[in-house]
Amino acid sequence: MRAATDSRQRSPRRQELTFCFGPFRLVPRRQLLLLDGRPVKLGGRAFELLQLLVQRRGELVSKKELMAAAWPGTFLHDSNLKVNMWSLRRSLGDTQIEPVYIATVARRGYKFIADVQASVGEIEDDLALADPLPLSNPPLLRGIVGREAEIVEIADLLADNRHVTLAGAGGIGKTTVAVAVAQAFAPRCRDGVCFVDLATISDPTLFGAALVTALGIRGNTDNGLAAALDYLRPRQMLLILDNCEHVLPAATIFAGKFMAGTSPCRLLATSREPVGTATEHIVRLGSLTSPKSGLARTVDQAVKFPAVQLFIRRAAEWSDYQCVDDDCEAVASICHSLDGLPLAIELAAAQIGRFNPRELVALLDQKLGFRAPSADGAPPRHETLMATIDWSFRLLSQKEARLFALLSVFSDAFEVEDAVFVAEAAGLMPVDVVTGLGSLVAKSLLSAEARGASLRYRLLDSTRRYAAEWRQADPDCGLALRRHAQRVLALFEQSEEEWNWREPADWTERYLGRIADLRAALSWAFGEEGDTLLGIRLTVAAITLWSETSILSEAQARLEDALALAKTVACDDLSKAKLACALGWSLFYARKMSNENEVAWLDAIAFARRAGNIEYQQRALVGFAFYLLQIGEIARAITHLEEATALADRDRDRTATSEADRALAWARAFAGELSKSRPVLDRLAATFSLAEGRSRKDANEVYRFITVRFNLPFVAWMQGQADYAARLARDAVDAADRSGHWVSQSNALGLAALPVALETRNLDALESFTERLRRNLERERISRWVPVERYFSACLRDLRGDLGAVEDIRAAIEELIEGRFLMRIGSYLAVLAGALLRQERIDEARETVARAIAHQEQQGERWCRSELLRIHASVLLHAGETQRAEKLLQEALVEARAIGALTYQLRIGTDLARHWMALGRRRKALQLLAPIYDEFTEGFESQDLVRASRLLHLAGANGCDGRQLYQ
């Protein structure tokens, strides 16, 4: 969490030993690698490897030495070292065929070959807290062979075609090519590249959820496809839909709607068959070319063919294989027999450590019946791939084969601990899992990538499907799906505990990456052969993730199902209270406030009471009160909030307690009890500050800092502190901006910054804040703020002279009323009445203000009663009903004084003084307005004070101040 000022300017510096190479700077004591002064995100083991290589630059460092440095006292498969070296090279950008920094010495180890300068210099203490360089969304590329021309061609096609599909058999390399195309095309994408791995979902109904999650769209997206299309419409980005074939109907619908729009975005899909839209440009990806018999007698001749080049490269990576002329015919025969399929070639190359090329040819011929295809045609490529996977599988040991089958339960990347937990169900020991994972990676049946201090593994789509068939047929794997769900439950229960201390961005990255397995586990748990109670526990554990990432629509559907089932089984009341509370909040942000929301909150209150849990009673009461405030039931909200504050245990620091205090103060402000509201809000504002750290405690402190500052400005402005109110509102907006919490920023904008800017007629601020809210709604679409943004945007246009804006103001208000977002609706209607009045539409203004007063009285929002009476009086003055207007203004002034709303007193006093001056009663006007004006100590540039000042000047003749005029 960044502080309000840049703390780096005052950070102490220390003398540190550093190593510089290229644009990088390595600081061993801090385990810090800097690229152009910014930290590179590097795992602990990758750092140990780099540090040892750099310190012994120019020397051969053996594999044994590297393994001992990164995994002291631990025996691991050689693949662990190789995968970490791949990851390290990628972090250094050292992915070329000819290395820049780290060279491989076949069969022996590695050597750091770049120039290194060691020095002692000053390093700022807080550099480790700086934002790391962003990670790439797409999977890791291991080096592309034989596709260079196609990549350039496809990137050029994307420039002229909004939708390109890479079609081809499984294992042909569609994902690899798509990622490489994205890297080439990225400079043309102002808003970046988004990679959507559809292999992580098995249910086509989750297509929309996967899409909005990958795009980073948060909030209440009632329709995932529509939300994605809305998000993409103004952007210039490349969207990659990878592995569309098993969710093809959903992909086709989305692509059709995408092409029907006018977005400048580009869509690149990969699928075994075309997506099927009318304007789709299909590129059918072919095999890698391989030499026919007799055309590759030497290594120099053979490596001209991409298929052979891939085989040799992969065999060298895993087995330090060096091709010689005598092997070329055999290698060429292998590649040709495997149809030039990259994945099949990699699977065969992975066996080189066990068999030489001639033995591989014989095995392929014997086990699969592969010979070079005859002139009448080759076997179908998909059959070739599946047969190769099957051949590789049958070469595994019994334990490796069972582990491979078990791993198919994971929908996305997983860690060794996950695999160990699931494998216990089939009797595999941890050592079997650790060695088996390394062996499967070495055989190209499993991919691995270093993330942080650990490796993350994943099955490719083709291998996962094959492994799943074996798992389903193996009785010893019958508990695998249950164990998977139990593991996901343990992870998300751990996430709840870690939420309290782990740095927020790190926490989100860690657990959002598990959402595919969360979805799969929930689908199993609530399925026919699942475990309902386990599913309920998992739903409860996932609430923190859904809340933290604002994935509200998905949460709402899951919570509704879980709560309904929880009411029918032997589920504890506290779990039901948690489910009901979370459901209430997810419904709170829906397009319309429904009775389901009230039912959820009443359920939450009842369950929390039965559980005897005070914290959740408070949470439920506060949540219900916020709902009641939204629908305009102020008195009822206050009743529940008084109960919540009465439950407060002041000796314990509970978020629910401060939330109850804040909500009650806010509700009392709406009820016109400003004198009771303001001291509480002031106390809370003084309690919470902008913490400078990045812990969860600091994040909570910032959240509370923000929330009280979108309540307090409302009260401060009414009490005559326009500048202070504006400053508080801007502080809240800026703090939310720095923390990246767009929901909180939308709240701060809608509840404080925009209303204050409109009331003070600061049109520049009004324009800036409406634009910020509009951008937020693209990132986190909270339905309740959509009509609010339209309302304030229309108000801005109206104040700048757009006569048509009044109808947009009206439409936005009607949308709010239709959605039952009735809080402040009286004041919104008052603004509409004022706009109508400026256009001399007196009858419409009269009707509108009458409607505003009706809402105010029904809802108990006394805070704006005096203002509505003032607007009503203005309508009467325009209609020539001066006596009624004067009486109404005097009534309004009494009301404003009764609640202590100094700003409203000034407005009413100005209108009444102007009326009296028009009747020649100048002295009476001065005696009314001057003392009100003199109570102000700030806000003199606001429209209200400017108008009052001008009127006093006109009435005072000699320019003396108000106090002199009436003494």
Task: Describe the fold and architecture.
- The protein has 967 residues and is of the alpha/beta class.
- The chain folds into seven domains: 7-129, Orthogonal Bundle (Arc Repressor Mutant, subunit A), CATH 1.10.10.10; 148-284, P-loop containing nucleotide triphosphate hydrolases (Rossmann fold, 3-Layer(aba) Sandwich), CATH 3.40.50.300; 299-394; 572-671, Tetratricopeptide repeat domain (Serine Threonine Protein Phosphatase 5, Tetratricopeptide repeat); 673-782, Serine Threonine Protein Phosphatase 5, Tetratricopeptide repeat; 787-900, Serine Threonine Protein Phosphatase 5, Tetratricopeptide repeat, CATH 1.25.40.10; 901-967, no CATH class.
- The chain is built from 44 helices and 17 strands.
- The strands form five sheets. The chain has a five-stranded antiparallel β-sheet, covered by helices on one side. Strands 10-12-13-9-14 form a five-stranded parallel β-sheet, sandwiched between helices.
- Helix 4 (148-160) crosses helix 5 (174-185) and helix 27 (634-646) runs antiparallel to helix 28 (655-670).
- The protein is elongated and about 115 Å long.
- The two termini are 55 Å apart.
- Residues 1-12, 125-136, 371-379 and 957-967 have low confidence and may be disordered.
For the structure shown, list the relevant keywords:
single chain, 967 residues, alpha/beta, Arc Repressor Mutant, subunit A, Rossmann fold, 7 domains, five-stranded parallel sheet, 44 helices, 8% strand, disordered N terminus, disordered C terminus
